[in-house]
Amino acid sequence: MKAKRAWLAGFLFAPLVLAGCWDRREINDVAFVMATGFDKVGDNYRVSIQVPLPSQLGGIGGSGGGGGTSGEKSWYVESMTGKTVREANEKQQSSLSRQLYYAHRRVLLIGEEAAREGVKQYMDIIARIPQNRLGTFVMITKGETRNVLNTEQSIEQFPAEMMRELAQNSMRKPRTAKHFIETLLSDGIDPIAPAFEVAKTQSGSGKEKTTIKLSGMAVFKEGKLAGILNEDDSKGMLVVMNQALQPLYVLPAPKGKGEISVLLQNVDTDIHPEFQGGKLKMRLKIRGRGSVLENSSDYDMTAQSNLEALEMQLDLQMQKTILHTIDLLRKEYQSDPIGFGDTVYREFPDQWKKLRQDWQSHYEAMSVEVISQIHIVHTGSINLPFGYKEGEIKR
Amino acid sequence: MTQSSSIRKSHTGDEKLSSALEENHELFVNAFKHCSDLVFREIEFEQERAFLVFLDALIKADDLHENALKPLLLHVKRLDAVDETSTQDLEQRVITLSQVLKIDKQQDAINAVLDGNAVLFLDGCPEALILSATGGTRRGVEEPATEAVIRGPREGFTESLSVNLGLLRFKIKSASLKTRSFSIGEHTKTRVLLCYMENLVDPAVIEEVHKRLERIKIDGVLESAYIEEFIEDQPYSPFPQMQYSERPDTIAAQLLEGRFAIFVDGTPFVLTGPVTFWQFLQASEDYYERYIVANLLRWLRYVFLFLALYLPALYIAVTTFHQDMLPTSLLLSVATARESIPFPAIVEAFIMEIAFEALREAGIRLPKTVGQAVSILGALVIGQAAVQAGIVSAPMVIIVSLTGIASFTIPRYNASIAVRMLRFPMMVAAGLFGVFGLVIATMLLTVHLCHLRSFGVPYLSGITPFNKTELKDILVRTPWWNQTKRPSTFSKKNRKRLRSLKPSPENGSGGDA
To answer: What are the structural domain ranges in chain A?
Structure first.
């Protein structure tokens, strides 16, 4: 009886062990895709992937082996075209001795041209296969993605890492693929994505170098790229979206000549939709605290009245720029990344049912009021403008 | 049963002693043929003859000389008449040794000699006197080598049973500390004592242990491990089901919690039971240091117990199956380090773990001076050269060393080696199935631990079956004034340990506050 049971246990255990290791995959046999770029070439997709080359990364074990094909670069970009993205991936795999592995992809680039034709099909790939991380950042590149992926920049190990860090620092809650997909599928709000481009910089030695630059925010309309906001407009949009990290405003001094830089902290924007005589009106209330980082003017802020004048100046400038941004969004790009439609839906669900049919016309027609109340709480550890004699300071 | 003297009577071997001196002499000569250390000391009184017999090395010669031979030779001129009363006469009036016993069986006489007593035979008397002058050289009381403490008693048990019992009696001055004596081992006739606090222990457990001890038939008992293997509940388990200690304070603490202790002559290691798993993670210093620090250290041990069991397995699982579980930058570091390594992670792990175990094994038995050389060799060769040669990766070395350190944090060595051993099946499971394998192995392990009993007490007592009061000494170590009850798993009756006497300035100075 005992022997029988031992045999039975052995037989039951054997298939377990025999079946083991079936998806074993050593780290050395995997190519970790750090970034993927999607472009359109005619009807075909061009897919570019960036994989790190561990043998080029340095470290004790790695220095001996290696012998990479790509010179000193610690990464490698492979680009292929195909009828679908997966077909292109398949072609890439056939020229890669290591298995493509997407779980560590943190950056998903979509070329500007491809994005104008629509981004929905790329989101399908992300959502369908669990190996893809929803924490990936979706980004737009000016020009072909492989150019950006191939940019040699000096700061981070990989271009993908550079873009990821830049995107992470671009707003309070960086927009991941999950968020992108959510807004893409929601009514009354459109997704945004940071846009990158290759830029030239001068290094200290005067040698010209390339780098990757965050050049603003891309806005979408109905799943297609509508346009890329410049830095000022992006700032205004992020302030309204409550996503601006610490926006810096540079304003002319209320009196005298020169500029004053104010850094805003704890900016909080409330959007109140209301109906006035059947017409939609948006009231944006922006509150926050600011501190003066730099005063290159001859303006003296020690007096309370002067500080208030500066606050007034700041409020006025913010109102102006934000109104300009909103007008740009609704009239030129016809895109609603701030989610005005969504706020109407939340506050007045019944009216939204009627409005959503031709939301675009209501969006363009609605009146917008911006109330900005920024309180400057710090003027720094020196009170008076620096380097001016007593008589020269404008009080 | 309470017999703590070194004289014992056997209940078997019924041949009586002869009253003829020559026959008794013959008995010993035959029984101890070719035993050069047997000594006969002939004594002649005016009319009667007598002899003392003993084993040379086991006797305290001074004692025997001062308290037996001298009085006999100086004071006894003539025995009135040799009969039954003459031995009693000698015992009561002449011999000044404190322990003397009358016997009349052959086997008892031989056993007494073997135990280190002298036996006195009188011509014409069918009885003999055992004179207890046990001596022989034994190690003195020293600091225990395997259980060092920073704060706490420094004395440790020795190889002498009577010294050990004395050390315990110094701690527990109570008549309810009972000691049942056994003689186990056909040839060694090792004295084994079962000790317990009569008013605290579960009597059923004691009866069970008594039964199990009596059933042991073996030719020799050289260490308490012999006893342990005969009386444990689950002989195939890797986990120890009895604890051992060479610290009298640890043993006293166990007895006061309602456990029993088994002393074995010839070893400083005293067994205790029943045990729970958690006990192996409790160090005696947990109770001697301030309880807040003790808690921190105890949790550190729990964390490192986990590491000791799982860390290499987890590393294998993550690097060969679940690369998505590592943060990207960490993964790239690992990938870089592993780039030129020719082996799969599991092979690498086995190489390193086995090398480490060998290193440790080599270090244990080597003389201290050579041991250092081994550790330098190991650290240099395995730690550095192997990494630089690209045979093992640096992360693996870190993992193995961390695991090694983790297994040293388990205070009880027998539990530590169990965990050390179980690490290997874990690594195999992780190499085969990744984290799924680890989960399955953990489930099997948990089932086994839940199934395990130590003298009827579930191995995981306190957690499962759950017991709130016992958590006070498992997950945390609450201060002594808060541990008002004894653990119920060991002590069924008399559970109240103390009234809560939380100290504060108000109820510090006397009074019944």
So the answer is: 26-228, 230-395
- H-helix or E-strand spanning residue B413: helix B413-433
Q: Do B432 and A55 touch (CB under 8 A)?
A: no
Sign of CA dihedral A240, A244, A246, A248: negative
A76 touching B (Cβ < 8 Å): no
Work out whether strand A192-202 and strand A137-141 pair parallel, antiparallel, or are unpaired: parallel
Which two three-digit tokens encode residue B3? 């017999």
* DSSP code for A299: B
A210-225 burial, b at 16+ Cβ within 10 Å, e below that, comes to bbbbbbbbbbbbebeb
Tokens coding A223: 């799943």
Q: What pLDDT is attached to residue B115?
A: 84
Best CA proximity match to B280, nearest among B228, B244, B227: B244
Which residues, 6 or more positions from A93, have their beta carbon under 8 angstroms from its beta carbon? A99, A100
Please judge whether A61 and B324 are an interchain contact, meaning their C-beta atoms are less than 8 angstroms apart. Answer: no
- How far is Cα of residue B376 from the mean position of the Cα atoms in its chain? 33
Is the CB of residue B411 less than 8 Å away from at least one CB of chain A?
no
Nearest partner of B254 among B265, B240, B243, judged by Cα: B243
CB contact under 8 A, A32 and B341: no
For residue B343, the 8-state DSSP code is: S
Can you give the length of chain A in residues?
395
Angle at A128 between CA A124 and CA A131, to 5 degrees: 120
Q: Do A26 and B344 touch (CB under 8 A)?
A: yes
* B334 interface with A at CB cutoff 8 Å: yes
Cβ–Cβ below 8 Å for B345 and A66 = no
For residue B345, the chain A residue with the least C-alpha distance is A26
Helix (H, G, I), strand (E, B) or coil at A72: coil
Q: Which has the minimum average pLDDT: B271-285, B422-436, B484-498?
A: B484-498
β-partners of residue A211 are: A199
Distance CA A69, CA A56 (A): 10
CB half-sphere exposure, B317, CA atoms < 13 A: 20
Cα separations (Å) of B126 from A107, A389, B18? 102, 128, 5
State the alpha helices, DSSP H only, in B175-290. Answer: 203-215, 224-231, 248-256
Cα gap B167→A377, rounded to integer Å: 74
Asked if B98 has any chain A CB less than 8 Å from its own CB, the reply is no
- Partner A contacted by B341 (CB < 8 A): yes
* H or E element in which residue B111 lies: helix B106-114
Peptide bond before residue A191 is cis, with ω within 30 degrees of 0: no
Q: What is the DSSP string of B162-213?
A: HHHHHHHHHH---TTEEEEEEEE-TTT-EEEEEEEETTTS-HHHHHHHHHHH
Strand pairing of A35-41 and A107-111? parallel
Share of residues in chain B with pLDDT > 70 (%): 94
When pLDDT is averaged across residues A47-65 and rounded to a whole number, the result is 71
Nearest CA in chain B to A74: B336
Interface of A with B in 204-243 (CB under 8 A): none
Is the distance from CB of A372 to CB of A318 less than 8 angstroms? Answer: yes
- A25 to chain B: which residues are within 8 Å by CB? 320-321, 323
- Contact status of B338 with chain A (Cβ, < 8 Å): yes
Q: Which two tokens stand for residue B14?
A: 């019924």
Domain A230-395 has CATH 3.40.50.1820: no
Does the beta carbon of A137 lie under 8 angstroms from any beta carbon of chain B?
no
For chain B, the average pLDDT equals 87
Residue of A27, A101, A134 to mutate for B, most B C-beta atoms under 10 A = A27
User: Could you tell me if A99 and A127 are in contact, meaning their C-beta atoms sit under 8 angstroms apart?
Assistant: no
Residues of A in contact with B324 (CB under 8 A): 103-104, 131, 133
**B339 and A66 in contact by Cβ < 8 A?**
yes
Whether the CB-CB separation of B209 and B241 falls below 8 Å is answered with no
Helix (H, G, I), strand (E, B) or coil at A193: strand
pLDDT in tens, B352-395: 999 888 888 888 888 877 877 887 887 777 778 888 888 889 89
